Each structure stands twice: as structure tokens, then as C-alpha cells.
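TICKET: design request
STATUS: open
ATTACHED STRUCTURE:
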């Protein structure tokens, strides 16, 4: 399991689309669209994550590489994902998109869809930055922290099975 961590506008979805097959990516936005016909409907978040966790468990039970594309900036959110991986005895990794908040805000503002309020992007960024020091203690197997757009673009995803 690969957990993508970062604020809205950091490039997680673009990175996932470039590096993983569509079937390998479980997106919180896509799950909201499935349960509410609208990826922006925040009232569908609980149901969306219930579906995401169920799909994650089914994929991990079959030994399938699965990427979780959500902000994942809260320790409790990561803990729930790690619990699913442990239940299925699967390794975990995280890719942290530690890009400047101004870049994330600019990208978010340019979106035609899925635009998140600027204050929410700032909160997500602060939570992500605040959790960097404790990520290793959460039980994530390996962690890559990407701090520039060039680092994101040049990251090579090793597709070998763990």
C-alpha cells in the first residue's frame, strides 16, 4: 500500500495517474463521486472513506498494489489505512508532497473543478508539515518526502514486489 500525503493542489492525483495504473489508485474524490455523484460533496466523505477502506482491504487481500490518493494529512486517517494493511499483512510506504503552500494554493486556484477553499489548503499544509517528524513512528514502512516540483517529476516508482 502506498499512501500519498499532501495538501490539495500538491499534485498527488497527477503523480498517481502518471506512475500507477488506474485500477491501482483509490481516490477519495472518486469515492465521493461514486457515493454522491459529486467528487466535491464533503457531506459524502464518511461514506466515501468507508468505500475506500473496503476496496483497500479487498485489493490488499489479493496482494494487489494499491495507492491511496487523499490528503492523508491527519494521523488518524493514516492510522486507519495502516490498520487495513496490517490486517492483510501487507507492507506500506508513503510519498509526502511537501511542496510550498503558495504553489499548492496557486494550483488549486487554477482548477476548473475540485477547487478547495484556500483556508482548507493552508490547514492541510500545516497538518502535513506538523506530522513530518512523526511519520516514521506511525509504522509506515518507507517514506519519500518530495519538496520541489522537480523532485516529484523525477521520482522513480520501483514496481518490484516487496
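STATUS: resolved
RESOLUTION: sequence designed for all positions
ATTACHED SEQUENCE:
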Amino acid at each position: 500500500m502506498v499512501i500519498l500525503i499532501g495538501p490539495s493542489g500538491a499534485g498527488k492525483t497527477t503523480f498517481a495517474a502518471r506512475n500507477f495504473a488506474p485500477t491501482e489508485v483509490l481516490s477519495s474524490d472518486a469515492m465521493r463521486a461514486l457515493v454522491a455523484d459529486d467528487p466535491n460533496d464533503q457531506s459524502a466523505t464518511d461514506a466515501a472513506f468507508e468505500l475506500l477502506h473496503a476496496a483497500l482491504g479487498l485489493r490488499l487481500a489479493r496482494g494487489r498494489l494499491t495507492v491511496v490518493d487523499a490528503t492523508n494529512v491527519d494521523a488518524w486517517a493514516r492510522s486507519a489505512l495502516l490498520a487495513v494493511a496490517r490486517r492483510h499483512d501487507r507492507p506500506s510506504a508513503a510519498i509526502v508532497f511537501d511542496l510550498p503552500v503558495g504553489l499548492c494554493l496557486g494550483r488549486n486556484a487554477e482548477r476548473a473543478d475540485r477547487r478547495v477553499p484556500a483556508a482548507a489548503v493552508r490547514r492541510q499544509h500545516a497538518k502535513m508539515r506538523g506530522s513530518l517528524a512523526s511519520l516514521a513512528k506511525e509504522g509506515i514502512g518507507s517514506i519519500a518526502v518530495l519538496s520541489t516540483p522537480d523532485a516529484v517529476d523525477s521520482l522513480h516508482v520501483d514496481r518490484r514486489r516487496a
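CLOSING REMARK: Strands lie at 2-5, 25-27, 67-69, 93-97, 142-146. The chain has a mean pLDDT of 94.
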